Amino acid sequence: SSIVPQTDLESFQAHLNQSTRILALLGAGLSASSGLPTFRGVGGMWRTHDATALATPQAFEANPGLVWQFYSYRRHMALKAKPNPAHYALAELARKKTDFITLSQNVDGLSPRAHHPPSQLKLLHGSLFDVKCSDFFCRYIARNIYTDPIVPALAIPTDESDPTTTSALARELDISDENVDLPEVDYSHLPQCPQCERGILRPGVVWFGEALPSSVMNDVDAYIEKNEKIDLIMVIGTSAKVYPAAGYVDTARSKGARVAIINMDPNDVPAAGLHKGDWFFQGDAAKIVPELLK
Ligand code: BJW
Question: Does residue 284 line the site of ligand 1, with CB under 6 A?
Fold first, then answer.
């Protein structure tokens, strides 16, 4: 049986069938049921730190070891997680509709791992699996680095005193919990830039106050300019509060797009609110998206 109201499902699918120029804006809620925490609300704390406060150049400047431990933990968790049915359903839609592009704010690598066609996947906020030099004058960047841990000093500490298990995985400590001791990481043990041999590397993600990758922005701009009309934008698992990403909802709307929101929280609608002809599907994206795209 259906988990979304039948009339909404039918009207959405009728519109989707007629649509060719489609956008999806993805947020952390898409990966929630894969076990990865979101930023705002429950799970948005890492130890005593607000996750969005660690995602800043200032935090990295002040304490690169701590920020790297946060990202090292997230890389590790993302590698352990699996894409869920929504990631696969979106990848499948991209193969059927070649004028569909996905604008993902997620850095977890789950859409690529669900084989989302790369040319139709725009990673607005970078990737946990890219690294770049933190030195302003060095342009070094490396992509698809899946080494975990990225350097030995960033390995997730394990509980060596636990006699109940011999598996290293099971002995891993949950360092997102503030009650678990976190060893300090010496600056000299952080990943070093192999190019300039001066700076340390940093995660290849977009922090607050930083520009989104220009190649990604250019692709998205080109798509928007090319299409006089956009048929549909699906806004999936995002609080839609971070710009410029959230602005694509209005951009699409200004080109005639109908808006379909898929979110657990009925209050998380984009700034402009719900318009006539929009859909709001409340619940877990991992369940709803596959049903909508069936
Ligand atoms: C479920 C669910 C389930 C749960 N199923 N749903 C205009 C106005 C005001 C401010 C600005 C503006 N323009 C720019 C700014 C400043 C700033 C900004 O937007 N601030 C706002 C917060 C006010 N923007 C920037 O700084 C951006 N840069 C920029 O503008 O640069 C300008 C510039 C130009 C030229 C030169 C220099 C500068 C950059 C923004 C970068 C954001 N980075 C982060 C971190 C990425 C790395 C990392 O992952 O650590 O991106 S912050 C964080 O927020 C992350 C996310 O991608 C992003 C969005 O969060 P998301 O995905 O929506 O997650 P949540 O937690 O907010 O929401 C989850 C949702 O899922 C909720 O709605 C739940 O209900 C739902 N949910 N479970 C379905 N199972």
Answer: yes
pTM of this structure = 0.96
Q: Which fold has domain 1-36+83-125+212-294?
A: Rossmann fold (3.40.50)
Q: How far is the CA of 205 from the centre of ligand 1 (A)?
A: 12
Are the C-beta atoms of residues 125 and 205 closer than 8 Å to each other? yes
> Looking at the domain covering 44-80+126-205, what would its CATH class be?
alpha beta
The answer to the question of whether 133 is labelled as a binding residue is yes
Residue 268, ligand 1, Cβ within 6 A: yes
241 lines ligand 1 (CB under 6 A): yes
Q: What is the dihedral of CA 106, 81, 2, 267, to 10 degrees?
A: -40
ipTM: 0.97
Tens digits of residue pLDDT in 248-292: 999 999 999 999 999 999 999 888 888 999 999 999 999 999 999
- The domain locations on the chain are 1-36+83-125+212-294, 44-80+126-205
- Structure tokens, 218: 């250019």
Compute, in angstroms, the gap from residue 165 CA to the centroid of ligand 1: 39
Residue 193 is labelled as binding a ligand: yes
The helix (H) or strand (E) run that includes residue 30 is none
